[in-house]
Amino acid sequence: MILERLDKVRWTSKPIRATCALLAFLMTLSLYRTFWTSGQQGTSVTSQASQSSCGLARQDHVAVIVKTGASEAFEKLPTLLQTTLSCVDNLFIVSDLQIDFHGYRMHDVLANVSPAVKDTHPAFEIYREQIRLRDAGATLQQLSSTARDQSDSHKAAWELDKFKFLHMLNTINVEMPGKDWYVFIEADTYLVWPNLMAWLAQLDARQKLHIGSPSFMAGTKFNHGGSGFVLSGPVVRAFATEHAGIAQQWDERMSKECCGDYVLALALTEIGIPVSGAWPMLSGEQPIFTPYGPAVWCQPVITMHHVDSNVVDSMWAFEKQFAVQQRPLLFKDLYEHFLPQGLPSSRSEWDNRCPGSVFDIRDPLPEDAKTSNEACSQACDAIPHCMQALFKEGECKLYKCFTLGKYSRGTDPSDVDRTSWHSTWKRDRIEEWVASHASCTAAWTPHSTDNARSGGI
């Protein structure tokens, strides 16, 4: 309408020409700012091209915290920042070194670890060395290269990582205060942003909630860090203020435990905040390793773990393509997109095991099932809900899920003799099941203290 009216105006008047020139300049500036929005430190850079895959839900009440380290950030973070994390306005990166990277500040959350632990735990040698190298001018790329070339550095970086889990809560309470939700992921976790926002809208942020993908260690339930987990604002504020100092109190215990996500569950449970699960929406697998079937099909996908840059790029391209459907992205959609030809019938030197004992078939097997791949496959044939089988000499595993899996020769530490696995899939059963479940309504998993991947379906 503006352009139509301008066409009818006589351009001989200098005031009119000046006014129109000003309008044209303002319109150009507006378009420029729409397509190229510069992000501030700690925020995202979002173009109009990604708005459709990001959704339009308000997000000022949500913060996403990416936990990483100086040894891995250069390789893992850039692709995430340019894709799924470009949707996030309130993005905060925690690390074992303070340094600026791709327009973001990586925050050192280990500075306040107990001095007694820092002075005695061997892993903090690399922590001090990283600081020394940074101060001497080393870039994050150089730090990453050094860690990659030194196996001891990689192990020390893994040890350092566990100390971040508790101390990062204190940091974000100061740096990102007052949020309803804090979403924690790692540098190899993919986040389906529209699904996350739709899910959080169903929850009560006034409750003290710790929701994730539960696993067990020594009989204790904890939320797996790589799958991502969510803390409500009241949890973070209670931890950092009502129980100030609790992180340092746990540092000595942390030094003796393997995993920070496990100790986080212990610490939060101690102050009255139980572990709650929303598996499979928060998932520890990427698309080709996902255990598809009745338990993992119509549920919306919120996170995936162990994603490299190729998987991230593929997922982001798929999300942009999928956005026109204007519905939640489901596990069914992942299967249909990433495995469009379905699954093979058989593969040697291949491991198609489904992650989690929940998918194991424990029916008694024929005596000869562990003697050959053919006998193991026939044992699967005899059980109507068996979808795939995995065999090596002396072992036969049957599953009620279906997944592609991976090349296996020599990758299993238990295969001392390097005997490889042989995988078979019941293609007819799988294709029949997939066809009969082609239509899905999003089944949002209610968070529950009873939810766990290793529990029942």
What does this structure look like?
Its main location: membrane. One of its GO terms (molecular function) is glycoprotein-N-acetylgalactosamine 3-beta-galactosyltransferase activity. It comes from Cryoendolithus antarcticus. Keywords: Glycosyltransferase, Membrane, Nucleotide-binding, Signal-anchor, Transferase, Transmembrane, Transmembrane helix. This is N-acetylgalactosaminide beta-1,3-galactosyltransferase. The protein is an alpha+beta fold. It has two domains: 51-277, Spore Coat Polysaccharide Biosynthesis Protein SpsA, Chain A (Alpha-Beta Complex), CATH 3.90.550; 343-439, Hepatocyte Growth Factor. Helices cover 38% and strands 15% of the residues. The protein has 17 helices and 18 strands. It has helices spanning 2-7, 14-35, 51-54, 73-82, 115-120, 124-135, 140-149, 151-161, 164-175, 193-200, 233-242, 246-256, 260-270, 309-322, 331-338, 373-381, 427-436, and strands spanning 62-67, 91-95, 99-101, 104-108, 181-186, 189-191, 210-212, 214-217, 220-223, 229-232, 276-277, 303-305, 346-348, 350-351, 388-392, 395-399, 406-407, 422-425. It has an eight-stranded mixed beta sheet. A four-stranded antiparallel beta sheet has the order 13-18-15-16, covered by helices on one side. Helix 7 (140-149) packs across helix 8. The relative contact order is 0.10. Mean pLDDT is 86; it is low at 1-49.
